[in-house]
Amino acid sequence: xxxxxxxxxxxxxxxxxxxxxxxxxxxxxxxxxxxxxxxxxxxxxxxxxxxxxxxxxxxxxxxxxxxxxxxxxxxxxxxxxxxxxxxxxxxxxxxxxxxxxxxxxxxxxxxxxxxxxxxxxxxxxxxxxxxxxxxxxxxxxxxxxxxxxxxxxxxxxxxxxxxxxxxxxxxxxxxxxxxxxxxxxxxxxxxxxxxxxxxxxxxxxxxxxxxxxxxxxxxxxxxxxxxxxxxxxxxxxxxxxxxxxxxxxxx
Amino acid sequence: xxxxxxxxxxxxxxxxxxxxxxxxxxxxxxxxxxxxxxxxxxxxxxxxxxxxxxxxxxxxxxxxxxxxxxxxxxxxxxxxxxxxxxxxxxxxxxxxxxxxxxxxxxxxxxxxxxxxxxxxxxxxxxxxxxxxxxxxxxxxxxxxxxxxxxxxxxxxxxxxxxxxxxxxxxxxxxxxxxxxxxxxxxxxxxxxxxxxxxxxxxxxxxxxxxxxxxxxxxxxxxxxxxxxxxxxxxxxxxxxxxxxxxxxxxxxxxxxxxxxxx
Lengths: 251, 262
Hints:
- By secondary structure, chain A is of the alpha/beta class.
- Helix content of chain A is 39%, strand content 24%.
- Chain A folds into two domains: 3-76 and 150-247, Rossmann fold (3-Layer(aba) Sandwich), CATH 3.40.50; 84-148, no CATH class.
- Chain A contains ten helices and ten strands.
- Chain B has one domain (3-259).
- Chain B has ten helices and no strands.
- The relative contact order of chain B is 0.13.
- At the A-B interface, helix 1, helix 2 and helix 3 of A face helix 1, helix 4 and helix 10 of B.
């Protein structure tokens, strides 16, 4: 298993953000970590990156403990989220050069050019981040995420600030990269059509707990408790989002 | 620690200096204003032999060295605050970059900036006020090192506080050195403080450095005891500062503040 999360718990005072969560992600798959706002998706991603300390539970990535081998693990993965930002006075190229140095990328200039072209922002290379739209900054974040050719990619709502066409383009790039390089992707999103299209497997969260896991069709059948021929994750989302915390446990 | 990651931090802050006029202000403008104002004051004191030349030299030397201490402590904290203001912390610490690599890179950039300020002030003092600090430099370097180490320690403490309490405490970046100034005996000897304040003042490496500086500039030679006391105190404070920083950093991780800092 590339990712093994066991009994992860994170509390802030009396509030439980992540409650006894366990799941695995296999090598080469695209797993969707989905659920309503406050379900604990982003907290799990941040805990996997070592940005948040859990109260209990273990995280193993590439078979290694995050607490013991942080540096080696983080060298092999990458992350992006539209909610993170870059120093605004630095140009796109300068920002990416800094991260290329952090990841010790060979021939960084060529790598940066290749990624900028791939994500359709080659013309913006010398523009400061402050002059970019949120959609363009999101694409810079995606370029950063691919700088080190990661074996594991953690994408937190990567298409949230993108228009329909750009989101489609980014999804195609991600799918193509996943196919060609076998990159494992853990993907969070509120867009159920996107999740249905992208993910082989889904981990559905609600109120900090895992309420369903499986392929999109398995999750649809389990949560809706109906025989369906096609996934209907929108309906699953509405059903789960309407549940109270105690109902989420009973599934 | 990996050199290429330290180099990445240096590169990141160098780009920032090149694009952000505030850094030029901090690095050159304030040191120039500082030395010009104090320089005129010493010219006034020189007229009619109001003051002995040795005292004037000590005054200008103190202005230059305090400028260095203040700049180093402030630039360390502001360098880190820039990551926080630009919400760059998540990207940085979600990478293999370690906190010690980050702090090392920041120290290198801050040292260069503080050195530029020191040189600018010293050259202006020489050109306009005929005060040449350079011949005394060999005797001053040990005290400059002590001041730099203490400024670094203060910078680490302030950075730790900002990690834990976020921008609520960001004003400390500019004001922390000022809190220490009255007890650091920058412009007056330790003996001029009230007796009850002297023990407190003497455990500050800044006080030991300025006492040593006065002796060196006043042709009293190099004071090994002031240097050794300052260095010993610095070592103790630096160890505590690193422990404090780690505590604040882990506390920030535990409270999820690294991802919520604003």
